[in-house]
Design goal:
It contains 8 helices and no strands. The chain is mostly helical. Helix 3 crosses helix 4 and helix 3 crosses helix 6. The N terminus is likely disordered.
Length: 150
C-alpha cells in the first residue's frame, strides 16, 4: 500500500509543480527599456541623428572630422549595438570597452557634457519619454569614468 501511495503521489506532485511553473503570472512583466525606446530601428534613428549632431557641434566635432564614411558607419553601428545591449535588447555589443576605446583621447568634462546635450537633443527630436531618457542617461552615465580623461 505504501508503495502504491508513493507511486501515485510522486507523479501527482510533479504534475502540480509543472503546472505551477508554467502558469501565467498574475503580474505581467514590465517592458524593457529597449522595448520602451521602440526597439532596434528606433534606437538606430536616434543614434544616426546623434552622430549628425556631434559632427555639427563645434564643441566636439574636431573629434569626428577625420573619420571617413566607413568609420562613421561603424561608430553608428557600435553605438546602436551598445545602447541595444545596455537597455535589455537582443543585441550584443562587440566593440572595445570604453576605457580602451577612449585611451589617449583626453576627453574633457566639457566634451562629455556637450555629447550628452547632443544625445538629449536627438532623444527629444524623436519624442523619447522623460523616464526613458533618464534611464538611458543613467545607464550610459556609468561609462563616464572610463571615457573622460582617458
Amino acid at each position: 500500500m505504501r508503495l502504491l501511495t508513493r507511486a501515485i503521489l510522486i507523479p501527482m506532485a510533479a504534475l502540480i509543480l509543472t503546472a505551477c511553473a508554467s502558469a501565467p503570472s498574475d503580474t505581467p512583466s514590465q517592458p524593457t527599456l529597449y522595448q520602451r525606446l521602440g526597439g532596434r530601428e528606433a534606437i538606430k534613428l536616434v543614434v544616426d541623428d546623434f552622430v549628425a549632431n556631434l559632427a555639427a557641434d563645434p564643441r566636439v566635432n574636431q573629434r569626428f572630422k577625420n573619420l571617413d564614411a566607413g568609420r562613421i558607419a561603424k561608430l553608428q553601428t557600435n553605438l546602436a549595438d551598445q545602447i541595444c545591449d545596455a537597455t535589455g535588447g537582443p543585441c550584443a555589443y562587440l566593440g572595445k570597452d570604453m576605457k580602451a576605446a577612449h585611451a589617449g583621447m583626453g576627453i574633457t568634462e566639457a566634451e562629455w557634457n556637450a555629447t550628452v546635450e547632443d544625445l538629449v537633443k536627438s532623444l527629444n527630436k524623436f519624442k523619447v519619454g522623460e523616464k526613458e531618457q533618464q534611464e538611458l542617461l543613467a545607464t550610459l552615465g556609468g561609462m563616464k569614468k572610463d571615457i573622460v580623461g582617458q
